[in-house]
Amino acid sequence: MKKILLAALAAVLPALLLAASDYLKYIDLADEAVRKQDWNRAEELLREAMRSEPSNPQNVMLLSNVGMFQFYRGEDSLALHTLSEARAIAPASTVILNNRAKILRHMGREQDAMKDYDKVIEMDSLNYDAYFNRGYLRLVHGDSVGAKSDLATLERLRPDDPNTLLVLLYYYLLRYRGWSGPCVRNNSTTHLLDRMAADMGEECHEVPVGFKHISAKMVETNAVIGGESSGGMAVRGHIAGKDGIYAAALLVEMLAVTGKSVS
Q1: Is the pLDDT of residue 119 over 70?
Q2: Tens digit of pLDDT for each residue in 21-50?
Q3: What are the pLDDT digits (tens) for 209-224?
Q4: From CA 217, how far away is CA 221, in angstroms rounded?
Q5: Which of 74, 105, 67, 107 is nearest to 89 (CA)?
Q6: What sign for the dihedral angle of Cα 8, 10, 15, 21?
Q7: Do residues 64 and 31 lie in contact, with contact meaning Cβ atoms separated by under 8 Å?
Q8: Is 234 left (phi over 0), alpha (psi -120 to 50) or beta?
Q9: Beta bridge partners of 233
Q10: Tens-place pLDDT, residues 123-171
């Protein structure tokens, strides 16, 4: 009996290994297509992977990725359908919900996106991205109390995040140093800066990605501070570029003067 089982295993093992290698091969090729931003090819390869192993539990995440490829191609309605299909398969996936919310926001369905962010936070109370995006939506819809609540949560979850520190340092320079003037951010950096500026009677200027745009706008507007979500920051009166050591020193000064921690 043992010999029969071993013989049977030897007969099917090559096919199993081939299937597994095909699955991973398609995923690797899809990753390569993503690097080239060839979204059509990337989708085609992930669908081939799913067809090669239709019962693989990871397929639902591949399907979520397919939805995002469709979104990057500008096919919002198709992407929404695909993400909703993935959501039906894996209702507990916060990744899928966050992806769907991003598409809903792009389609102008911000209330529906807010509901998805609410669900993410119900399932994962430490989900930074959901708090960040919900806080932004609350901000643009005039819910300053809700936005500030989400910002406070962000500070607790990730006190050293560049977005959080940028808002805190701008507030410190205005409130404690007594400076005045606008701030500058690129279009991928927190919009909570806009709200902070408005609350302090100032303006926040948005520029394209690239620190040279931040530096130029700071000079043009005599801005107090400028920064980007990747961590680069500049302050008026210092060099017209990024300086991490100066930013760290300013953070230490803020903690010493206010007597508070970043959390």
Answers
A1: yes
A2: 799 999 999 989 988 889 999 999 999 999
A3: 888 889 999 999 999 9
A4: 6
A5: 67
A6: positive
A7: no
A8: beta
A9: 227
A10: 999 888 898 889 878 877 888 788 888 878 887 887 677 888 888 899 8
Q: Which residues pair with 235 in a beta bridge?
A: 225
Question: pTM score, two decimals?
Answer: 0.61
Contact between residue 163 and residue 192 where contact means Cβ atoms under 8 Å apart: yes
Q: Count the alpha carbons within 13 Å of 139 in the hemisphere toward its beta carbon.
A: 21
> Taking 90 as the threshold, does the pLDDT of residue 114 lie above it?
yes
Q: What is the pLDDT of residue 183?
A: 96
Q: Residue 205: what pLDDT?
A: 92
SS (H, E, C) the chain: CHHHHHHHHHHHHHHHHHHHHHHHHHHHHHHHHHHCCCHHHHHHHHHHHHHHCCCCCCHHHHHHHHHHHHHHCCCHHHHHHHHHHHHHHCCCCHHHHHHHHHHHHHCCCHHHHHHHHHHHHHHCCCCHHHHHHHHHHHHHCCCHHHHHHHHHHHHHHCCCCHHHHHHHHHHHHHHCCCCCCCEEEECCCCCHHHHHHHHCCCCEEEECCCHHHHHHHHHHHCCCEEECCCCCEEECCCCCCCCHHHHHHHHHHHHHHHCCCCC
Q: Which residue, among 129, 112, 108, has the nearest Cα to 120 in the 3D structure? A: 129
Residue 47 to residue 140: CA distance in whole angstroms = 38
Q: What is the pLDDT of residues 70-102, one digit of tens each?
A: 998 999 999 999 999 999 999 999 999 999 998
